[in-house]
């Protein structure tokens, strides 16, 4: 495999005029059309962003969820896309049990495991290359990418190590009308190699390629629960758009990739020990900020299996 073959389109292509971001006021619609905001009755909720991100108070993730609490948390997840919980001194088993309220758990043989195959443990300093400093949606190289993830910070650096999330439905809303029309029926190829080639063992990549062949997904997916149209390409795993020549595909992908860079569609979370983030992987991209060297940051993540994008 050549480096050029697996260099993300964001880096291959020439700059998009204007940087790919349209100036002027933003469309900041948090909820689907026709849906009105309603209060939450079983916990406190404090918004951290205009369209994405809310901190939840009054929920102990170490205890089993009742049916009504699970339903209200799910509504909050759909409406705010990423939920944050502070001071959750839970075990990996309790973390897995919480995530299972949303479905079967996923394993990822490409990443280091924690106490079980269903827990991914990230333990690194900021000098170690990994999925940091790049916007991405998890495991879009799978036919059925993850529904969501539950991430707990076990060790937090004194300064830095924040994570950012972007609402990709709001990003889609802010594309120029002609671009939205152009991409509505397009499909793109996703491959695990570009995302892992920077830090994974080449022998591991070669061994896993038959298990994870490239897959196609719609450039714009419809969220299966909210019905919102959401940009579903990312620079870590999306290699090209089907049916376009290389130059045209690269230019269009570059424009689409930078839509996650709009501050108005983002939330940034500063971690504390035992804080937990639960995000909707179908609706968001995220970016782990690698700015904490020489300190160490340790996190454990559980991912929930998803469905095929349409």
TrEMBL record:
<comment type="similarity">
    <text>Belongs to the TfdA dioxygenase family.</text>
</comment>
<protein>
    <submittedName>
        <fullName>Taurine dioxygenase</fullName>
    </submittedName>
</protein>
<dbReference type="InterPro" id="IPR042098">
    <property type="entry name" value="TauD-like_sf"/>
</dbReference>
<dbReference type="GO" id="GO:0000908">
    <property type="term" value="F:taurine dioxygenase activity"/>
</dbReference>
<dbReference type="GO" id="GO:0006790">
    <property type="term" value="P:sulfur compound metabolic process"/>
</dbReference>
<feature type="domain" description="TauD/TfdA-like">
    <location>
        <begin position="46"/>
        <end position="301"/>
    </location>
</feature>
<keyword id="KW-0560">Oxidoreductase</keyword>
<dbReference type="Pfam" id="PF02668">
    <property type="entry name" value="TauD"/>
</dbReference>
<keyword id="KW-0223">Dioxygenase</keyword>
<keyword id="KW-0408">Iron</keyword>
<dbReference type="GO" id="GO:0005737">
    <property type="term" value="C:cytoplasm"/>
</dbReference>
<dbReference type="InterPro" id="IPR051323">
    <property type="entry name" value="AtsK-like"/>
</dbReference>
<dbReference type="GO" id="GO:0046872">
    <property type="term" value="F:metal ion binding"/>
</dbReference>
<keyword id="KW-0479">Metal-binding</keyword>
<dbReference type="InterPro" id="IPR003819">
    <property type="entry name" value="TauD/TfdA-like"/>
</dbReference>
């Amino acid at each position: 495999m050549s480096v050029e073959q697996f260099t993300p389109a964001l880096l291959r292509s020439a700059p998009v005029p204007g940087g790919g971001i349209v100036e002027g006021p933003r469309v900041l619609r948090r909820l689907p059309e026709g849906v009105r905001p309603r209060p939450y009755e079983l916990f406190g909720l404090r918004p951290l962003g205009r369209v994405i991100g809310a901190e939840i108070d009054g929920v102990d993730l170490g205890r089993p969820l009742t049916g009504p609490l699970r339903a209200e948390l799910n509504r909050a997840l759909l409406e705010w896309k990423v939920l944050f919980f502070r001071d959750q001194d839970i075990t990996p088993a309790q973390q897995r049990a919480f995530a299972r309220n949303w479905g079967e758990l996923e394993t990822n043989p490409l990443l280091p495991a924690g106490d079980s195959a269903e827990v991914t443990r990230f333990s690194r300093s900021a000098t170690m290359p990994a999925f940091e400093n790049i916007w991405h949606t998890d495991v879009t190289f799978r036919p059925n990418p993850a529904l969501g993830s539950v991430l707990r910070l076990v060790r937090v650096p004194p300064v830095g190590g924040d994570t950012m999330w972007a609402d990709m439905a709001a990003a889609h809303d802010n594309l120029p009308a002609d671009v939205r029309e152009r991409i509505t029926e397009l499909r793109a190829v996703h491959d695990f190699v570009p995302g892992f080639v920077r830090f994974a063992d080449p022998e591991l990549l070669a061994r896993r390629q038959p298990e994870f062949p490239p897959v196609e997904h719609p450039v714009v997916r419809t969220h299966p629960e909210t019905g919102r149209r959401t940009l579903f390409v990312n620079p870590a795993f999306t290699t090209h758009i089907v049916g376009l020549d290389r130059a045209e595909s690269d230019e269009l992908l570059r424009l689409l990739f930078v839509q996650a860079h709009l501050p108005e569609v983002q939330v940034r979370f500063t971690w504390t020990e035992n804080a937990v983030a639960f995000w909707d992987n179908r609706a968001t991209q995220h970016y782990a900020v690698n700015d904490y060297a020489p300190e160490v940051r340790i996190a454990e993540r559980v991912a929930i299996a998803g469905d095929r994008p349409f």
